[in-house]
Amino acid sequence: MTVTRSMAEDYWRVSKWKEDKVTPVKFDHLYAWFLVSCENLAQVHSTLGWFLSDLYHRNDQNVQEFEGQKEIYLYDLMSRVSSSPEKTLTTCVEKVNASIDRIRECYAGMKSYTDIKLVTMIVTDCCFILEFLEKESLLKDRLLVTYIVGDLMLLENQIPFFILQEIFDCSILKSTSTASLTNMLREIQPYINPFNEHLNIRTDGTDTTHDHILGFFHRSYHFAYTKPSSFSGRSTVHSAAELIRAGVNFKPNEDSKWALDIKYEPSRTCVYLPWGKPTLRMPQLYIDDDTELVIRNFIAYEQTSTLVDYSFTSYAHAIDMLVDTQDDVAKLIESKVVINNLGSNEEAARLINGICKEIYLKEFYYRPQWVQLDRYYMGYWPRNIAQLRRTYFSSPWNAIALLAGIVLFAVTIVQTIFTIKN
């Protein structure tokens, strides 16, 4: 079915009712007006996620309650454009309709959706996203911004980047010739970056080679070095507490050219000395309520795409090997490699261990570093020093008992010497 100019005009006319303070129009009725030539569309809803429109979860009550806000955002976006709103909306509809087959290829389970339904949802959601990006810095409710950005990062909520760019070109770019979609996206980067690292985000031109918004941000974490020749086999697992007992220092990265860089700096001496310990430098991870959502969706994207690298999957596997218990989290916090804003260290450990469940690790980018760690750990002095610390210094009482034993042994020797002399 072809989307006509009259349909777009009807869609715009109903949206404009809000400005004129006419009786509020529900979103399903808005769609019915937009799709005036279609039959039985009174119950059509655009529901991708809570704030966006999840093409697979159409009846969620929380989603339906937010649809009115989308209506307002679409109207505000169309009103800002220098040309007539009707003409702009018509152009947007025609752009989406012309690419409808390409859009369908990006989703599974779209057979039940007519072209009209799909065009309506895509236009609405693209306009909502663009208007949100425009208003983001002005919104006073930062918690709401955090929730919306979180929904933008869900893999199930993604909209093809090329069509988002086309809607941007038809609307915002018409009124602001210097505007850039990638620049606008960069403004929400602080909400989605779980690391204290600068992201190298390209903002030049209209690069539509990204899959979607999630893919756009993922590109900022792409592996920055020549990949090791082999990723096969399991890496030996040593927890952070074990490695620290063996003499390994943990420190946050400094001036790394890759946001997820992990560097192993070997010992500066040939023998075991306290001042010659090796150092493992890692990105500083902020753990809060949104950390799991962001990392899980980056991993999900890596697991479902053959064209992106395994940066987050490798990082999640690496930190999962370092963390077994809350004691490991405490050690990483002391080393400033982890900042825990979630609550208890036990919760943080549970989050880290849960991220890697049921994921496939095709390529482990930190294998060379872990081989070096294992080689150091299995050395004579580090291994025995670690055993000594684990046995005698795992608690204050063990240390006191050891000290008392040493004192008693020394007193016994002194008494024996005096006895022999006398």
Automatic annotation (TrEMBL):
UniProt-listed InterPro entries: DUF247_pln
Swiss-Prot/TrEMBL keywords: Membrane, Transmembrane, Transmembrane helix
Annotated TM spans: 397-420
This protein's name: Uncharacterized protein
Organism encoding this protein: Artemisia annua
